[in-house]
Each structure stands twice: as C-alpha cells, then as structure tokens.
Design brief:
Blueprint lengths: L1 H23 L2 E11 L5 E6 L2 E2 L2 E2 L3 E13 L2 E12 L5 E7 L8 E8 L6 E12 L5 E12 L1
Antiparallel strand pairs: 1-2, 1-10, 2-5, 3-4, 5-6, 6-7, 7-8, 8-9, 9-10
Length: 150
C-alpha cells in the first residue's frame, strides 16, 4: 500500500514539474515607460524586457488615458484607464490603474482588454507616476509587472 502511494506521489510530482516550464514560457516581465501631458491628451510609451515567444512585444506607441473618480465607503477612489496602441500595428491593450492610497505609494494595474495579438492577454502589476515640469509639464510613469498569454 505504501509503495502504491509513493508511486502515485512520484507521478503527481513529476507531472507538476513538467507543467511549470510550459506555464512560465507564457509569462513576460514588463516595464512600460510613459510620458503624458499633464493637461491631458495622448502621450507616448516604450516597453523594456518584454518578449512574446521570442519576438518583440509592442516596443512603442501611443498611450491615451481617461480618469474616473467615485466614492466608495466615504473615500474618493480614482481609476485610470490607459489604452496602449502599438505603433507596429500588432494591436492594443487596455489597463485599469488604481491610484495608490497615498501619493508616495505605488498604484496597481490590471489588464482589462486588448485587440490584435493582445486579445487573450491578462496580467497585473504596480506603477509609479511623477511629474517633470522641465519636460513641458509631463507626467512620467513606469508600470511593472507580468503579462500572461492564454
């Protein structure tokens, strides 16, 4: 009986280790750097460290943001929806960014949609934003986290 349990455990562990590399191959570390006008309107973005099956993943493009503010349990909550349109024509992806509880805290983001090669995209991460008045009043953002491809 012990032998059967040991063999069953060995099979389960072996299968588990075989599936981990396949799942990891679909994950991509991401850093998206954005420059957006404080006054609103489209900005630009570049990406660092992302590969989709070995090919570049939307290296640059236009980012457009909308802001929604609501009150939840007496607290004001701000949600930013950022649409990233890839300049290489591969598609676009949309992130919802929740503002941090304090300006010094990072925000969090979640993938909520996509087109083209990004229709089956999901993921999440964190972001920081700073204001650089020396660059024509721009907001500089960095979003980091993971994208996953289904």
């Amino acid at each position: 009986m012990k032998l059967i349990r040991s063999l069953a455990l060995a099979v389960v562990l072996t299968l588990s280790f075989m599936t981990i590399p396949a799942m990891a191959a679909n994950d991509s570390g991401i850093a998206i750097n954005t420059v957006e006008p404080i006054a609103g309107g489209p900005g630009t973005f570049t990406t660092v460290g992302i590969a989709n099956n070995g090919s570049p993943f939307c290296l640059a493009g236009i980012v457009e943001s909308t802001t929604n503010t609501t009150t939840v349990r007496g607290k004001t909550v701000t949600l930013y929806r950022k649409t990233f349109n890839c300049s290489d024509g591969s598609g676009s992806f949309v992130l919802d960014v929740s503002a941090g509880s304090r300006p010094s805290r990072p925000s969090s983001w979640t993938v909520v949609g996509g087109t083209g090669q990004f229709t089956a995209l999901w993921g999440s991460g964190s972001s920081t934003t700073s204001t650089d008045l020396s660059t024509s009043a721009s907001k500089l953002g960095t979003l980091t986290g993971n994208f996953h491809f289904r």
